[in-house]
Amino acid sequence: MRVILAAMSDELPIRFQPCSNGEFEPRLRSRQDDRADEMYRRIVDDKAKRLGLSRRDFLDSACGMAAAVFVLNQAYGCSHSGTASVSDGGFVVPPDALEDQDRARMVVEGNETIFDVQVHNRVPKPPWNADVCARADAMLCPTEFIREIFVRSDTQVACLSGFPRVGQVDQPSIEARQKIKEIVDQLSGSARLMVHANVEPSRGAAELDAMERSTQLVPVAAWKTYPEARGLDTDDVGRPFIERARKLGIKVIAAHRGIGGQVDWMDRYSPRDVVAAAKASPDFKFLVYHAGWDSRFKELQPFDPMNASPSGVDRLVKGVVDAGTTNVYAELGSTWFNLMRSPVEAAHVLGKLLKHLGPDNILWGTDSVLNNAPQTQIAAFRAFQIPQSLQEQHGYPALTPEVKRKILGENGAAVYGVDLKAMRKKITDDELSKLKLAWREDRRSVPRSGPIPYGPRTRREYLAFRRWSGEG
Q1: Contact criterion met (CB below 8 Å) for 386 and 351
Q2: How far apart are CA 144 and CA 182, in angstroms?
Q3: Which of 156, 220, 217 is nearest to 194 (CA)?
């Protein structure tokens, strides 16, 4: 049975199989995953027959996407501990959306401007030859990556980021990111793709000098950093880095926090140093990528201000609440993707961030294409609601359409200085929009010839990814 489901999963708009973005070991496959796969297979077979469609056409339709989100609620609607449910919230997909295309579109489609502040690939340093796109792999082929982000999803603006250990293995190189940006700029006539420059502040003066060289090579939108033993709040490492960034006039720092270290308050993967640096540098914007989330900590509780040593996302909340900062932002890359399979945890995380950071300080990120294509994450977020019971019990705000618009795009645009109104006007008739329109009318007009790219799904794949990134 698992072999059959695995073969079918290459066609699906969502995979229920566990995976990682390469920064943590994926969990083992569970009975819930098996149940979700089997449930979705049954729905696809039944509804396709009822609607007189091929299985492929149903999967490509709004009903197919609505069915995938429906299964998320049915298969994962109770927390992993079994102590809570989402009977009054979660992924709200009425059963008729599985057969009525117009109803399905109301659930999974929208007209928000989507600004994905974290996307990745492993495209090698140019020059490129035909071997780079020998197979349709969005992790390695630049044109396939562009199609996956901008054509096969509702994403309109994105930030292409790098991986850790930039000083030793910057893969993809900043040259690759710049070349991909040039292609997108030619197709769109506007800055739809922004680029991060990775920095390891602890490497000292040579690394800081490299920051200036990066700005001469590419229009750097933000500096991307990863956790180090000496944090961003230190006088010998953090402060010189921030001063150099200030001198270069690029005052957005995207700092990976959460995912990968220990889950406690004092660990270097905790956002506490980022918040301290933000308080000391109010003219900067500090983006906490992954929001401090870690897969090993279950987010099944509200924030407790009396807890002096919190874990998970509560580390970010504590830092912001204690410091009273307004220039710290929570980014959802990989966090949302994984929490989709635990709707109660998703409700707590979003509820805590909305309550304590505010609706203007949460940024949309997907970690795609490591976490598959972004469209399912977008559709699932559109359908998600924080349960009314949790709102009443913990004072969580509701995920209104206005709040979702802010998270999906408006907040990222404000951080990165993008005029969304001008951008939308400019991209209405560009080449990427024409491709997207053709794809919506006929999914085969922009064919996918291979499996959807995916991050590590097993311990073996995870260890191989770490070796590739220079961390193994």
Answers
A1: yes
A2: 15
A3: 220
Number of H helices and E strands in the chain, helices first, is: 20, 10
Average pLDDT (246-269) is 95
Residue with tokens 């030793």: 168
Taking CA atoms, 6 is separated from 16, 33, 66, in Å, by 10, 11, 20
Q: Which residue has the higher pLDDT, 355 or 86?
A: 355
In this structure, are residues 271 and 312 in contact, taking their beta carbons and an 8 Å threshold?
no
Q: What is the pTM of this model?
A: 0.91
* Residue positions counted in the chain: 472
Rounded Cα–Cα distance for residues 104 and 205 (Å): 55
Reference 343, options 102, 31, 71; nearest CA is: 71
> Quick one: average pLDDT of 404-433?
91
Contact 15, 341 (CB under 8 A): no
Q: Cα–Cα–Cα angle for 299, 93, 87, nearest 5°?
A: 50
Would you say 208 and 182 are in contact if contact means Cβ atoms under 8 Å apart? no
Q: Count the neighbouring beta carbons within 10 Å of the beta carbon of residue 381.
A: 25
Residue with tokens 């040039």: 182
